[in-house]
Write a structure and sequence with these properties.
The structure is a single chain. This protein is of the alpha+beta class. The chain has one domain: VSR Endonuclease (Endonuclease, Chain A). It is 45% helix and 21% strand. The chain has five helices and four strands. The protein has helices at residues 7-18, 22-31, 74-85, 95-100, 102-114; strands at residues 42-47, 50-56, 61-66, 89-94. The termini are far apart. The model has no long low-confidence stretch (mean pLDDT 86).
Length: 118
Amino acid sequence: MRYQPPEIHRRRARDMRGDATLAENLLWQAIRDRRLGGFKFRRQVPLRGYILDFVCFEARIVVEVDGGQHAESVADEKRDAAFRAEGFRIVRFWNDEVTENLNAVCLSILSHLKNRGE
C-alpha cells in the first residue's frame, strides 16, 4: 500500500515548495523533468513524518540542501539514520555549494545515481 502522509504534512510540503530557498530553486531547475541522467526527482516530499527536499525513489536517493541551522544537527542525524535503514542514501549539500557551483553539485548527484547499489 502506498504511504499517505497526514494532511498537515502535505500542506506544509506544499507551502515549502512555494517558499523555496534560492539554492533549492536552482537545484530544482537543474534536476526536474528528468534533466539529470533521466532520473525522476520529486521535491519537498512528505514521508514518514519528515519533509525531504528532493528524492529519487527509483534510485532511493534523498538530496538535502541545508543552511547553517543544520550544522551538526542531531535531528538530521536521526532522520538520516531512519531513511538509511529503509535503504535510502542521503546526499547533503550546503546552500552556498549549490549557488556557487551548481554544476559540481549536479555531477556529484549524478555520480550517486549511477553508482547505486555499490
